[in-house]
Specification:
- This protein is mostly helical and about 250 residues long.
- About 75% of the residues lie in helices and about 0% in strands.
- The chain is globular, with a radius of gyration of 20 Å.
- The chain starts with a helix and ends with a helix.
């Protein structure tokens, strides 16, 4: 997915390792990898698009919602499978489907069931750092949500806990107070635009590319689509550059 950011000229991702190192330095490297939040974005976009189509309103009965669920599952399987069933996406997709499909279990029961399914179906992932961090961050978030904290406070606490876990698991030196400050500020300030703006826009551009591929032969419509998504990509690229400027500014704190 993030290779798409490179093709969108997110400040020349493909030309050097500078941007990756910059994200790593201030503790935002997790935003450049596959993340469970992308599953939520994809599912939300699918539902919003499907339910916004006016000609489908008269079909909204039991069969409609069954078809919607089936379509969502096929989309999830295609997306997660297409990324090689990475641990964060697999966990997020299973958790999302468990919550959507059953309401008789309590939340922690659903979490336990999803964890067992994940571990049994993909045993090779259980020894990976991404598996541990994925589930640890998920459980931390559930605990933090119980306290009804402001979003920016929960994001900051979660960031510090996850980075501390990485330090322990990989036997690294503890970050200096200055680096902890950069990690905290960068996550609190920039996690929201990535989750709410960058990820949805990337998903929209991907869906647009797939949509246009079906109309290559219809040149008039295809050119209209290229112009429309090109304009959208221009806006996305501008927002991407603004975010990157903010990241560079945080480096000098």
């Amino acid at each position: 997915m993030w290779s798409l950011l490179g093709t969108g000229n997110f400040d020349s991702f493909s030309q050097s390792n500078e941007v990756v190192q910059l994200f790593k330095t201030i503790g935002l490297l997790h935003l450049l990898v596959l993340s469970g939040s992308q599953v939520g974005v994809l599912a939300s976009l699918y539902r919003a698009i499907l339910r916004s189509l006016p000609f489908l309103s008269k079909f909204r009965n039991t069969n409609f919602y069954l078809a919607e669920s089936l379509g969502r599952r096929l989309l999830m399987i295609s997306y997660v499978g297409g990324t090689g069933f990475s641990a964060p996406l697999t966990r997020a997709a299973l958790a999302y489907e468990a919550q959507e499909s059953t309401y008789s279990l309590r939340k922690w029961g659903i979490v336990l069931a999803v964890f067992c399914i994940h571990a049994l179906v993909f045993p090779g992932q259980t020894g990976q750092l991404s598996f541990v961090l994925s589930w640890a961050s998920f459980l931390m978030l559930l605990v933090l949500n119980k306290y009804d904290l402001p979003r920016w406070v929960a994001t900051g606490i979660l960031s510090i806990l996850c980075h501390s876990l990485i330090v322990v698991l990989k036997d690294l030196d503890m970050p200096t107070p200055v680096l902890w400050g950069k990690i905290l500020v960068s996550n609190v300030v920039l996690a929201w635009p990535f989750n709410r703006i960058i990820f949805p826009m990337v998903a929209f551009l991907v869906l647009g590319a797939i949509f246009l591929s079906f109309f290559v032969e219809q040149k008039l419509f295809y050119q209209w689509g290229v112009n429309f998504f090109g304009m959208f990509g221009f806006i996305y690229n501008g927002i991407g550059r603004l975010v990157l400027c903010a990241i560079r500014a945080i480096r000098y704190i």
